[in-house]
Design brief:
about 140 residues, 5 strands, five-stranded mixed sheet, about 45% helix, alpha/beta, single chain
Amino acid sequence: MDMFLQAAIEEAEQGLAEGGIPIGSVIVHDGKIVGRGHNRRVQQGSTVLHGEMDALERAGRKPAAFYRECTLYTTLSPCPMCSGAILLYGIPRVVIGENMSFMGEETLLAQRGVHLTVVQDERCILLMREFMRTSPKLWAEDIGE
């Protein structure tokens, strides 16, 4: 198990424990986690704090050149908003825990030159499937349905 994907899963589990949506993300630069986050829409009453956005927020203001040297790890395929942030800051590599529960904008990311690795990690799949089963309205809200 990749230690960075493991850290993203830990973030997802923390979000679930807080009563939120179990999606976690970390941003890695030069072999170190520089930002970690999880979906905090419920906890913060936010419209935009998906896991990837939270990790970016926590990484802080950096020059674009910094983000062009990063890898983003996320437990679930990135939605249009998070994919837009990946493209905006030029993050070149994204490792996706799973895309069976939700297929985000992977085609767009790949077309724009982002290198994607999809792991299909069983823990990521189980976290999302259970959440989608027990909280379908919250899940639909989170993805804009």
